[in-house]
Each structure stands twice: as structure tokens, then as C-alpha cells.
Amino acid sequence: MSISWGNRILLTLIVFVSLMGTLAYKAINTTYELVSPEYYKDELAYQKTIDANNNSNQLTEKLHFNLTDGALQLVVPSEQSDKAFTATAYFYCADHTAFDKTVTINYQPGQPFSIPATELKGSSYTVKLNWTFNNTAYYNEQQIRIR
What pLDDT score was predicted for residue 68? Predict the structure, then answer.
């Protein structure tokens, strides 16, 4: 059985319109999330983050987390391990903003700080650490994958 040229054109148009309708439907229902709800305001104050990152780069070791035995263990640089300080860890998940989490860290010398990995959903995170030590601001980012 052969299809006439008129039916082929009609079938082609129907397939084309169906594909365009599907693409339009998906484009309308896609969520677009910014890194931060206050993205533009945060961008204006980004020089402070650059300066804090430069301070962090001058340390021999940076403040960071190690994933061990189902917990995120905070590793403090040896230059800063002798005094108490407060830090903020922002766990940013690019896939789902609902997975984002902010943790305030009150570090005391000799007391290890850890976060159970079960507090975070399984995904990739960018951990943004902000802390102040001896009136100097520090900033560090690292990538962590929670399974």
C-alpha cells in the first residue's frame, strides 16, 4: 500500500506540530533557579568574597570537610586550630534548591566538629565556607558528593 503525496505532507505537518507543541510544553514547565534568590544583591558585594578567598589562599591548609564513615568531618588549618571561631557552611546543590542547607559551626579547640551525612540528600554539593579568625575574613569552596 502506498501513501499519496498529499497524505505524506499532512502526516509530516502533524508530526511537526506535535513535536513543536511538546517542546513548547516542556519549555513552559521547566523551572529556572538562580544560584541565590538575592543573586544581584550578592553580586554587588562579591569583592568581599574575593578578598576572603585571597586570605584563605595564603594559608598552608584551608578549612574543609572530609567525608568519612557517613559523616562530614571538619578539618581546621593548623594555624587556626588553637582558638575558637565561628564559621558558616552553605551546602549548595545545583540540581535542587530544596537540598540546600546552611550550617553554623562553632569551633572549639580540641573538639572535633562533624555533620552526619544523613542530614544531606544524596547529590553533588558545592560547600561554601565563610569564617573569621583574628578579625580576618576567610572563604573557601569545595565539591562534595553525597551518595
Answer: 85
